[in-house]
TrEMBL record:
Pfam families: E1_DerP2_DerF2. It comes from Chlorella ohadii. One of its GO terms (biological process) is sterol transport. Belongs to the NPC2 family. The keyword Signal applies. Catalyzes the intermembrane transfer of phosphatidylglycerol and phosphatidylinositol. GO terms for molecular function: sterol binding. This is MD-2-related lipid-recognition domain-containing protein. Coiled coil: none annotated. InterPro entries: Ig_E-set (IPR014756), ML_dom (IPR003172), NPC2-like (IPR039670). The keyword Signal applies. Monomer. Residues 1-23 form the signal peptide. Residues 25-137 form the MD-2-related lipid-recognition domain.
Length: 165
């Protein structure tokens, strides 16, 4: 029996939702810095490495000072938060127009692998919201764990070949 139209539609919906959930960035609040994109570089990082978070957008007017708040969550749990001077994170003043803001962060060596979300929220000294954006990134399995996994796969292959002979 061919799949029903309803089944195909719900499958399509699932695919679209999955695509949305894995988007790199999401606006969490509108501000005078209109966000047009964002990403983590590398998107899949290693624990202990540096990661750069970039937010692209258009700034409505010059900003000379502000605050930056950052939250990082892992599997829905808040694992890190920090707030401070925006101008310690990026060079100020921020000039009106198209801009890319880059925030560098070093990842703890002990960070477990998996999906993470960084929420970056900035406010101008005037009190106006600059932007709020969520950026997704992943921490890769540790190199050592990868090596063990490879060795295990090799051993299973060898055992399988032995069994076939
Ligand atoms: C914004 O900053 C730029 C560069 O610093 C300056 O040339 C411009 O006059 C400023 N605009 C306003 C409205 O202050």
């Amino acid at each position: 029996m061919p799949p029903s139209r309803a089944a195909l539609l719900s499958l399509l919906t699932l695919v679209l939702l999955a695509g949305q959930a894995s988007a790199d960035w999401r606006i969490c609040d509108e501000g005078i810095f209109r966000v047009t994109g964002g990403e983590a570089e590398p998107a899949v990082a290693h624990a202990g490495q540096d990661i750069a978070f970039r937010v692209h957008g258009v700034l409505d007017r010059n900003v000379t000072a502000g605050m930056l708040e950052v939250w990082v969550s892992y599997l829905g749990f808040n694992v890190y938060s920090k707030s401070g001077d925006l101008c310690e994170a990026v060079p100020c003043p921020l000039a009106q127009g198209e801009l890319t803001l880059e925030f560098k962060q070093s990842l703890p060596r002990t960070a477990p692998p998996g999906p993470y979300m960084g929420c970056f929220q900035a406010t101008a000294a005037s009190g106006e919201r600059l932007f709020c954006v969520d950026l997704n990134f992943r921490i890769a399995l540790r190199e050592a764990a990868d090596t063990v996994a490879d060795a295990t796969a090799d051993a299973i292959d060898a055992a399988a070949q032995h069994a076939v002979q």
